[in-house]
Design goal:
This protein is α/β, with parallel strands linked by helices. It has a single domain, classed as TIM Barrel (Alpha-Beta Barrel). It contains 11 helices and 14 strands. The strands form 4 sheets. Strands 3-4-5-10-11-12-13-14 form an 8-stranded parallel barrel. Strand 3, helix 1 and strand 4 form a beta-alpha-beta unit. Helix 3 runs parallel beside helix 6. The radius of gyration is 20 Å and the shape is globular. It binds 2-Phenylacrylic acid.
Length: about 375
């Protein structure tokens, strides 16, 4: 009898994601860096930053608003104007020239905004008129959040159209796929979780209704890209942006089951909040979502090489997204491969500013 050993899966085992074969399982997590130019247009510096990180198995861009209404922070890139499409084209060309793959993250912040950031000083929109605790970040500094305006039922198709149109623009900009930002307390997550959704129409109440907008947006985005080039990110236990749910296990089990029907490129779960059980609602074992999901499963939050390899070997995930480690180490895969030391991240330059703390982290060969 011959025993055939199954090779152990690790960060350097290639992975098929939709039509793409990723050379490794080291994804670059989406990270807001607030360095877009005037008009929320990506600029040459942004192309340098992403191209430096092109050895990632997959890059997921920072969240990018699908409409002027979808913005919630200074200098985040958009994907709703022709200037922005041209700016993103610099990024995709630079990443492709280095052999990388890059998905754009489609974003609408909902209530996590402020009239100072909105067209005509309008109120931010949300599922319900519930003010989140905390401050918005505006060009004039932090300002307390305001009570948002609840979207009318008749406006929901307009929101879906914003995502569809953003998806079309991302296609035109030369991306390899898109990720729907369904996480971290922004619009789709605000609809999904019952702490922020008190509606009594077809988009509120039971989970089938609260998940409706996310599923309709997914359908619209898949109609542009084909499902196998569309991923989605969820954050079941994330309290950030004043989020909670009375039953995260039921809510997220339902939505993941429903998402199975599309045949998406991947499901991306951020485990943020797992370490503070209860803050966003009763905790549960997130591996339950891995078991429900019938496709490529990406996980994220605080992984290092060792924990990532352990998760891959155990079958708890197929792909790991690294945030801060990738921010500070443009050549993270090479460093992992060689067990080389890692650069320390500088928190003071995470959000906003210039090349400093953005494109000047040294490569291994610079040392
Ligand atoms: C940090 C600061 C601003 C935005 C997210 C898009 O949490 C974000 C974000 C993170 O998904």
């Amino acid at each position: 009898m011959t025993i055939i050993e199954t090779p152990k899966i690790d960060l350097f085992t290639p992975l098929q994601v939709g039509p793409h074969v990723l050379p490794n399982r080291i994804a670059m997590a989406p990270m807001t860096r607030n360095r877009a130019g005037p008009g929320n247009v990506p600029q040459p510096l942004n192309a340098v930053y992403y191209a430096q990180r092109a050895t990632a198995g997959l890059i997921i861009t920072e969240a990018s608003q699908v409409s002027p209404q979808g913005v919630g922070y200074p200098a985040t890139p958009g994907i709703h104007s022709s200037e922005q499409v041209a700016g993103w084209r610099l990024v995709t060309d630079a990443v492709h020239a280095r052999g990388g793959k890059i998905f754009l993250q489609l974003w609408h912040v909902g209530r996590i905004s402020h009239p100072l950031l909105q067209p005509d000083g309008a109120l931010p929109v949300a599922p319900s008129a519930i003010k989140p605790a905390g401050d918005a970040f505006t060009y004039e500094g932090p300002k307390p959040f305001v009570t948002p305006r609840a979207l009318e039922l008749a406006e929901i198709p307009v929101i879906i159209e914003q995502y569809r149109s953003g998806a079309c623009n991302a296609l035109e900009a030369g991306f390899d796929g898109v990720e729907i930002h369904g996480a971290n307390g922004y619009l789709l997550d605000q609809f999904l979780r019952d702490g922020s959704n008190h509606r009594d129409d077809a988009y509120g109440g039971r989970v089938e209704n609260r998940a409706r907008l996310m599923l309709e947006v997914t359908d619209a985005v898949c109609s542009v890209w084909g499902a196998n080039r569309v991923g989605i990110r969820l954050s079941p236990l994330q309290p950030f942006n004043d989020m909670r749910d009375s039953d995260p296990e039921a809510t997220f089990s339902y939505v993941v089951e429903q998402l199975n029907r599309f045949g998406l490129a991947y499901l991306h779960i951020t485990e943020m909040g797992k370490e503070a059980p209860g803050a966003a609602g009763p905790a549960f074992d997130l591996r339950k979502l891995r078991r429900i999901w019938q496709g490529v499963y990406m996980t994220n939050a605080g992984y290092d090489k060792e924990r990532a390899n352990a998760a891959l070997a155990a079958g708890d995930a197929d792909l790991i997204a690294f945030g801060v480690l990738f921010l500070a180490n443009p050549d993270l895969p090479a460093r992992f491969a060689k067990d080389a030391p890692l650069n320390a991240p500088d928190q003071s330059t995470f959000y906003g500013g210039d090349a400093r703390g953005y494109t000047d982290y040294p490569f291994l060969e610079d040392n």
